[in-house]
Amino acid sequence: MGGTVLVLGANGKIGRHACAAFWNAGWTVRRFDRARDDLVQAAQGCDVIVNGFNPPAYHDWANILPRLTADVIAAGQASGATVILPGNVYNFGDRPGVWSEDTPQRPCARKGEIRKRIEAEYRAAAAEGVQTLVLRAGDFIDPGRQETLMALVIMKDLAKGRLTTLGDPAVPRAYCYLPDWARAAVMLAAKRAELAPFEDVPFAGHAFSMLELQAEVARQLGRPVRLSRFPWWLMTLASPVWELAREMREMRYLFETPHRLSGAKLARLLPDFEPTPFSAAIAAEIPPEARRPSVDAAGQGQSMSTQTSA
Known about the structure:
It comes from Pseudoruegeria aquimaris. Residues 5-194 form the NAD-dependent epimerase/dehydratase domain. By secondary structure, the chain is an alpha/beta fold. The chain has a domain at 4-142 and 174-204 and 257-270: 3-Layer(aba) Sandwich (Rossmann fold), CATH 3.40.50.720. It has eleven helices and 13 strands. It is globular.
C-alpha cells in the first residue's frame, strides 16, 4: 500500500533513487523545490519525508545541516509525516569493527560530531511525535553517475587500466548501492506503523577492500587492473584554497579503518529484502570507456609496487 512522499534534494544522489523507488512502488511522489516551496506547507498531506538534502563538497556543514534539521523536524511536526534520514558511518569514529545500531557513537572528526548532534535532534523530536527512521549506509555506488567517490576517484582512470586506492588496499569498507538503499527505504516506509518512534537501521550493503574490488573489476573486464595510490599530499597543498580538499583530509581515517555495517536489524525488519549482488553493483559502476581495450598500453601511471603513500 502506497501513500504520499515528499523528497527533499530530489535531484541529488539519494533523492533521485528515492523518487524512482517510491514511484515504482505506487506512491505519490512530491519533489521539494527549495527555491519555490515552503517546507512546512509542502509536507502537508504527506505520509513520509525523505531528507535527501546534503550540501555539496561538505560545504559549511556546521551551519547548514542544523538549520536543515530544524526545518525538517518542523515539517514533520506540522504534517505528522515520518522522516527517513540517510545516515552515514562518520558517527563511529576510527574504531575498527562491525558497526550496528548498538555501537557507541564516538566520532573522531568534526563532521562526525555534526552528524551525531543532528541524529540526537531527530531522536528528541521522535520522543515528541516525529517518527524518524535513520537508514545508515557507507560510501555510495550510484550507477551511471559521476558524482560519487567511486566515480570521481576510485574508477576515474579505469579506462587506463588502473583503480585508485585512498588507503590500505587490504582494508574492507562499507559501500551502499543506492538503488538498494531506496528500495529498503520504501519497504521501511510501508511498515512504519509497526516501527518505534526512532529507528536506527544499519544498511549493510557491500563491504569490500580495494584488493577485492581490483579482482572483481579485472574479472569483469577480462584483463589485469593495477592499483595506484591517491596523492593525499596534493590535498594537503590545496587545502588552504580548496574547500573539498580540506574536508576530504579530515575523513582520511575512514580509508584506513576496517569496518562494515551489520545487516542483522535490517534482516529482522525486512526479511524479504534482497540486495543487488556485488558483481552486478560493480558492473553498473564500471564506466563504458573502461570496457574497451586499455588505453594505457604505453605504461602510463605506476603500479602499487612502485608507488609510495602520500
